[in-house]
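Quick one:
INPUT:
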């Protein structure tokens, strides 16, 4: 999870500029229409959805692809 939604979006843009696609986490299940009437405290799922980020993943990724994603993320934090 990223520290906040703003930093997540900055990282998304940084990766995009390097040709690396990402996507946000799925919306929390409790916000989907079949489950909206369920009472409870779901702040952790909300937070994960707001701060989470899917990185490229596939059985077809090569080691150099993975290293490029990792290096690009490291570069973002430096």
């Amino acid at each position: 999870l990223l520290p906040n939604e703003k930093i997540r979006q900055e990282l998304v843009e940084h990766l995009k500029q390097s040709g690396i696609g990402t996507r946000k986490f799925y919306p929390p299940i409790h916000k989907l229409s079949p489950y909206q009437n369920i009472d409870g405290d779901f702040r952790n799922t909300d937070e994960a959805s707001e701060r989470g980020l899917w990185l490229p993943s596939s059985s077809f990724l090569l080691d150099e692809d993975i290293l490029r994603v990792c290096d690009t993320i490291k570069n973002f934090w430096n």
